[in-house]
Amino acid sequence: MFETILDVLSEKPAYSTIVIHAPIGYRDRPGDPPRTCDRDARKLLGRRHGSIGTAPTYQTLVGGELENAHLDAATMVMLPRYKEIFAEISPFRQRTIYSGNPELSFYRLNGDHPLSYSKSVYTGSEERRRLLEAKIQSFRNVLNGEALGVPRKYLLDAGALLWTARLVFSHGAKRLPADAEWDSEGLRTELVY
Description:
Layout: H1 5-10, E1 18-20, H2 36-45, H3 58-63, H4 73-88, E2 97-99, H5 102-109, H6 122-135, H7 139-143, H8 152-169, E3 175-176, E4 191-192
Parallel strand pairs: 1-2
Antiparallel strand pairs: 3-4
């Protein structure tokens, strides 16, 4: 387990593909429209659309502007991690690091259909476990992380992003949007799944 994104990037031998559950590519100012990848992902996920958070703006990441940031509760909680990733990300690093969302990964694992239940309920947790075990032979080993105090829902998310990283590595991942977009600082703004 790693404490920071810098620890992940410093690992030797280096990872060839990393998919993280954090936005890469940002809006410039509060009030700017949502990123295309976020809008497209929400459409795909239907009633599970709430799992796609609001990407912070450059003003929020650099200056800490929160008063008019219009961020959802989950993004506010994750903001310190997003700032940490923001400090390390560059267009060059996007050769290795990709932005994903576990619910999009599960959408694809489920034959391009949104899942029926939240990962926070037993039925939803089991739905996700079955999908992952069908694709990752040793996924039960990932669930052993529960013994380390990692909640099951986060292990399921990690498994989904691991599966997506394998797709990215083998050039089989899908991207939202299909046509590449970049933010004002040259970061590719997309979600892979």
